[in-house]
Amino acid sequence: MTIAATQPGTAPVPPAGAPKGAPGGRPDRALTAVYVAGAVTALGTQMTMLALPWLVLETTGSATRAGLVFAGQVLPMALLGFAGGEVIQRLGARRTMVISDLARAPVVALIPLLQHLGALDLAVLMAIVVTLGALAVPYHAAQRVLAMELLSPHARSLARANSALAGVTNGSAFVGPALAGALIPLVGTTSVIWLDAASFAFSGLLLLRRVPAGSGGSGGAATGPRGLWAGVRHLCGDWFLSRAMLSTVVFGLMLRTQMITMPVLAFTRFEGNARAGGLLVAAYGAGGLVGSVAAYVLAARVAPVRLACTALVCVALPLWTLLVPMPVSALVVAVGLSSAAAPLANAPLMGLLSARLPDGFGPKVLQAVVTISTLAGPAGFLAAGAVLDRAGVAAALWGVAALATFASGNLILALRRLRATEDLN
């Protein structure tokens, strides 16, 4: 869950160089290339999310080292996240994405190459994954900035673009690990990592060929707000953005708590039934994918504020049913409904954000949103583990439902005030 944002008291400002397309119009070839590039790289990355720790386990048998590899990919976002907006502002969104993709391709390829040469130890692998994490820092915000500038500035068009990008992420998270799990026994772990390297090369070349050179800003420090913290200052200086960002952090805590709690719930309530745990985790991914598809359809037909408020209710309400003893099938439905509602809320919220940002603020604000959302994750995992160990599953489920209700209610009240003061629908 991310946030929506507006600039209260101002009229919508089209991004610099944005085409004046009709709301809800079909994406042109350049926008389609952004979607395809995002899908290919996300699929490759998700495959490597399984293949890389698998390689560590195959070669060392150490779960601790596999965990270090995971941490090495997240660390750059924590340390460098806010600098990503500066990169996008100076290079432009298109150039940022192309450089990120084409640079990551050979870095990923080093893993299977060095493994083949017998030169891949833990220190080298950690250096590689940290480099990959650093190169990925501005990528997701640049995707949204580029999509924003290829579309009309109408909130419904931008909501559809954000739902498409969310669908790419959710679909890849659902398909990628399963595909990697099927390919590893057939072609080997390093071959799967080679595919990830190829996906980055394909994406970079596709963007280079199909997206016009002037798209996503031309770069240059003269455009947009100055300073590393400009995006955060803009978020904190606006009443609506501040409340929306609070909900973003709370949702981040809730989602990480839920991710850890679902397997524990299956283990304790259903006597160690691994199938129940798998179904609950799969319901989360499947719901997100279905919700992204639904958001793409509904974003052009339903007013953004109305769609967001309705979806936010549906995010929180099903989670209260997890507290009641029910069959696994009912729990799966509840988790799936809540997960499906998240992209239905997120698409119009991000559409409002993109449509209403002042000219030049997109890179800094969107990167700040992505970074803050990411930073909420580790805190959520740590808090969830402590609650589960000390108070049990029931307390964790109460926490999940309460956090979701607070975050949803806070955003709904903010959206209703926004609609009343700015005549939004």
Q: Overview of this structure, please?
A:
The chain has 425 residues and is mostly helical. It has two domains: 25-154 and 176-218, Up-down Bundle (Growth Hormone, Chain: A), CATH 1.20.1250.20; 229-425, MFS general substrate transporter like domains (Growth Hormone, Chain: A). The chain has 15 helices and no strands. It has helices at 29-60, 63-80, 83-91, 93-117, 122-136, 139-150, 155-187, 189-210, 230-236, 239-269, 274-298, 304-320, 328-356, 362-391, 393-422. Helix 1 packs antiparallel against helix 6 (139-150) and helix 14 runs antiparallel to helix 15. It is globular and about 65 Å long. Mean pLDDT is 79; it is low at 3-27. Residues 1-10 have a biased composition (Low complexity). One of its GO terms (molecular function) is transmembrane transporter activity. It comes from Streptomyces roseus. The chain crosses the membrane at residues 33-57, 63-85, 163-186, 249-270, 276-298, 305-324, 330-353, 365-388, 394-415. Keywords: Cell membrane, Membrane, Transmembrane, Transmembrane helix.
SSE arrangement:
Layout: H1 29-60, H2 63-80, H3 83-91, H4 93-117, H5 122-136, H6 139-150, H7 155-187, H8 189-210, H9 230-236, H10 239-269, H11 274-298, H12 304-320, H13 328-356, H14 362-391, H15 393-422
Helix pairs in contact: 1-2, 1-6, 1-7, 1-8, 2-5, 3-4, 3-14, 4-5, 4-6, 4-8, 6-7, 6-14, 7-8, 7-11, 7-13, 9-14, 10-11, 10-14, 10-15, 11-13, 12-13, 12-15, 14-15
Main location: membrane
Pfam families: MFS_1
Keywords: Cell membrane, Membrane, Transmembrane, Transmembrane helix
